[in-house]
Amino acid sequence: MSARLEHVRASDSPEVILAVLEEKGVVVVEGMLDDALVAAINRDLDPYLEDAALTAPELNQMIQLFLGDRTRRIGALPAKSRAFCDVLTHPIFLFVCDAILLRASAGYQMNVGQVIEVGPGAVAQLLHRDEDVWVHVPRPAPMFQVASMTALVDFTEEIGATRIVPGSHLWERDRVAEPHEVAVAEMPAGATAIYLGRTIHGAGANVSASTWRRGIHLSYLVGWLRTEENNYLGVPPEIARDLPDRVQELLGYALHDAIASMGGICGYVELRDPMKMLREPAEPAAAAR
Ligand SMILES: O=C(O)CCC(=O)C(=O)O
Ligand SMILES: [Fe+2]
What we know:
globular; binds fe (ii) ion; Jelly Rolls; 3-stranded antiparallel β-sheet; 7-stranded mixed β-sheet
């Protein structure tokens, strides 16, 4: 593997970060999260990861193969970590999502908010494009997904740093990456590889004896497509009501514009706006019948 990824600093101008992302299909932003935020997220997630199963028993074998062996995934992160909510609403993410996703939609939402721990002995994940989840979207299509991997420990090739193919967002769909076109997202904890839904990538193999590779996989999706994670069940109203407004919106509680001038119509409940419903006092427990 000899391809390289372009690294920038979180303090660089967001326009520069966006320009690299659009040109290469991927950009590594160092210092995206400060040490205190990384530590807070790790503290919040430690107990969940200790209890996590290594496989997803209810999903079929093909999907399990894709998710990776010796790999733990925990989703619905806004319900599990307030610190994660600061990642979800990070100004750099919102800047690039505004720029890319609002070209094709009136709004966007969290698609997946997951921690992925690749364990010792895990083999490399199949290289893929995240947007291939939505096989029925006719191609060519506007860019409808922005994705990312944030290191919660230092990412090295040895422990399974994500492998990413710069430039592949512009390739014909059936082109397969040659080994020399694949780069390794080695990066310090707190750095984020932001990539497009169309960029080829996958988790690397973890050949270490005992080090887990812990990272956050967070992606955003235009408002008119079904999300991979079911955010209403993952972060139900009784939890969502205490989260910041922007987080509620990104979880899909905000109405989405079908027609820009209407100010939102998709996603109502009994013709009501779920964001307003979250602001009402919680229902008293139902009286015994
Ligand atoms: O864990 C990683 O490095 C990448 C995971 C990934 O690409 C995915 O699950 O879609
Ligand atoms: Fe992926």
